[in-house]
Every structure is written in structure tokens, then in C-alpha cells.
Amino acid sequence: MNPRITLALVAYRQSTFIDAAVRSALAQACEPIEILLSDDASPDDTHARMLALAAEYTGPHQVVVRRNPRNLGIGAHYNEVMQAARGELVVLMAGDDISLPHRVARNAQAWDDSGGRADLIASDVVDMSYDGVDQGTTTVDDLAKWATVQDWARRRPYIIGAAHAVTRRLFEQFGPVAVDVTHEDQVDTLRAMCRGGALTIAEPLLRYRRGGISGGLQQFTAAEFVLRGQRQNDTHVALHRQWLVDARLAGCLDLVEQATRREHDRELFIQALLRAPDLAARLRVTGSAHGVDLSWRLRKLVYWQWPAIAASVRRLQVRSKQLRRG
User: Fold this and answer.
1) Which domains does the chain possess?
2) What average pLDDT does the chain have?
């Protein structure tokens, strides 16, 4: 019989952490579930380690190991996992995080308590440093306060995508996300508001590893800083595009378009600015983006025209944040 819950672990190039992540999935104390271990064509031994741990497992859960034939990226990998999952509720985790033993059980209980209505379940996390030291709890918003799309339009809730669960029916109703989407949790949140709603479990159920991005920022050259900015901007534009596609399908396009227009216009302006080949072209872009505040446009022009200065400011911000954390 097909289990009603899938715990899906998605990984790419996480050989250092994958053993602990997989073991935390296999150690779930709950009803029999499907544990889906999915590797996005990692060039290291991430997939081999998944296979080895699955072969050793003798517990009650059904373990499936899969691997994409080529690297697909976050959005397309998410689509593959949601299509492969057999459970009605899919609990998601990354290959460098650690699920607490009762995580699936608590998600199942919360889902049952909602009468199976909720399409998305969020939870708090234990912040974990890159080297595995716990650093306190990060709480997320109570999604019960977002009952409608109108609530979402007034203020988008804060959740941590690495610690959420989503129903397979929601994915089937809206279809796959665009392949350039990386913030699938933000896509799922709006989708859930349009359908069965969402809820939050107000306790940490995942040890969430903070990656090496902040530390790496201290070593970025100006060119690398610009490349990172382009990638981030592209993902933001893709997210906005997906929101509008889903809102049209759900019949609330005008509301979502109005709520996100200012932010969307800014992201499109930054995209055009970053794609401009020289200062003259950037000045033309800055002068023509009339839907965006002029002073904000000028600040971004300076920021991206002289990225070495921007990168230095960012490094100071990172160091200051690290010092505050102790």
C-alpha cells in the first residue's frame, strides 16, 4: 500500500553532510512513510552515500533513491520530486539539514487536526552553523493568520522553505513551477492561500544549516559580486512571474498583480540595469524606468556601476553581523 506521507530529501553536492541528513530521515518515529532520497546529478559521491545508507536500512519505512540523469537546478528538481512522491503530504528537507525524530509525526498530527484541509505546513527551525553548532531557534509567522489571498496581499508571511510540507494535490492543481524558480516555498505559500490554506507548527522540527554564502561574501571580487547579484535578481523575477501565472489560474490576478507591482517593477529595473553593457546604457535604463522611484533608481545605478564599492560595503555588513552573533 502507498504510504500517505512522503519525506523527500533533495540534495546536490552535499557529500559532507548527506550521511547525517539521511540518517535523520530514516530515524523518523512515526507511521510508516515513504522516504524519497533525490540527488540532482551531483558530481561528488552524494548519490552513492544515499544508496549505501538505504541499503543498510531495515526499519518500517519505504526508502526510494533516485537521481536525475543531469543537473536540473532547484525548480526542475522540485518538480521531479513532487511527481515522484507517492504520499498525499510531502515533507521536504535539504541534504545538509537534519530533521528531528518527531518531525513527520508532528506534521501528520497538524495535518490531521486540520481535517486534511491545509495545503502547506510550516514550522520553526533550530539555527545551525555551517559546522553543525546549534545557535538558537528561528520562529516563523503563524500562517493561520493568513486565511485568504487578501491577507497575503497585505503582507507576505515569513517562512523557511527548508522546513515546510506541502500536499501533492496542490502541486497537481497548479502544475510544475517554472524551471528557473528557486523559491518554491514562496510559490507554495501563495498557492496554498488560493486553495486549502496553511498553518504553522510553533516549534522547531528541523536543524537548519546556514550555508557558506555569508562567509564566501568576504572573498568575492567585484565581478563575482555582480554575477551573484544577477543570479539573485533572476530568481526574484522568476518568482514574480510564477506568482502571476498561479494567480491567473486561481482567479485573483488583479489582486496579486497590484500587491506585487512595486517590487516587481524594481526587480525588472535591476535586471535591465545588470544586463546593460556600459554606463551609457545604464543611464538610459535609469532614465526610462518611470514606474520606479527616481532616488531609488539612482542609488541602484551607483551600486551596480561601481560594484567594488558595493562589495566592500557588503563585506562590512557581514562582518558586523558575525560580530553581533558572537
Assistant:
1) 5-211 (3.90.550.10), 214-325 (no CATH)
2) 91
